[in-house]
Specification:
The protein is an alpha+beta fold and about 90 residues long. The protein contains two helices and two strands, in the order βααβ.
Amino acid sequence: MSARPILWDVDTQVDFIRPGGKLVVPGAEEAVPAMTQLVRFAHATGIVHVASADDHELTDPEISDTPDFVHTYPPHCLRGTPGAQKIDETAQA
């Protein structure tokens, strides 16, 4: 068996990327065109697109109304909310 490349897509979700998201990563929106190109290339060439998604409920220990941003964070990527969805540009086939 030979090694094959994969596209490893980590948590490209609305709450981390889009303006107004609950825990936006600085500069993430500017990286979306590059993400789009990577996903399109992977789909076109048969590269496997592996994706993770952050997933929380309000009762998770990481979620806090008074976050320390080390061990706790404000509510984000709450299961079933628009912010938990992958952005369209990184949607899997």
